[in-house]
Each structure stands twice: as structure tokens, then as C-alpha cells.
Amino acid sequence: QVQLVESGGGLVQAGGSLRLSCAASGRTFSSYDMGWFRQAPGKEREFVATIRRSGGTDYADSVKGRFTISRDNAKNAVYLQMNSLKPEDTAVYYCAAKLITSYNYWGQGTQVTVSS
Length: 116
Description:
By secondary structure, the protein is mainly β. Strands 2, 4, 5, 6, 9, 10 and 11 form a 7-stranded mixed sheet that branches. It has strands at residues 2-7, 10-13, 18-26, 33-39, 46-51, 57-59, 67-72, 77-82, 91-98, 103-106, 110-115. The protein is globular, with a radius of gyration of 13 Å.
């Protein structure tokens, strides 16, 4: 079992930056691939970024070059640095953990609102 708690969301103007954090507890954090997802009002949840156990990363095309995912296994934490934010980035952002093939564990989410 893994518990995930996101923080760092808030209200920011377009062009600004935010850094989301996800604190994990439970089983060995370094065994998991970690991901960030988001869900805007009226839309389905979508993939944002992932960082694998190896440290390799992937990003959604919509955030490439603006967002950076990182992890600190010593602190059991994963981060999402978001720069050049746009109003369309407004969503609830979720942290998730994947052990083998699917994301089994999810946090409660943190709201990010980008004003124009």
C-alpha cells in the first residue's frame, strides 16, 4: 500500500510558475514509476508526465518544454515544476504510483488555476 499526498497547487497568472510536490509513504518508493495526471472541469483525466524507476521521463506534448518531473527517492517525493503556465493548464493535478503495469495508487489531488 502506498499513500500519496499532493501539495503546491494554487492560483497563478498566465506565464507564471508553480512547483507541485507529492509525498509518498508505505512500500519502497524507489520501486514505483511515478506519474502526474490532471483533470479539468468537464474533461477526462489526462496524462501529464511520468518518471520511471530508472529516472527516464516522458511528457504529454502539451507540456513538453514547460514542465519538468523529478523525484527524490531519499525523501520519498516526486515533483512537477511547471513554467510558462497557460489558462488551459487549469485543472486538478494528481500524483500516481505504478508498480508493474498500471497506476495503482492515487493522491487526492491539488488544484491549479491559471488566470489570463
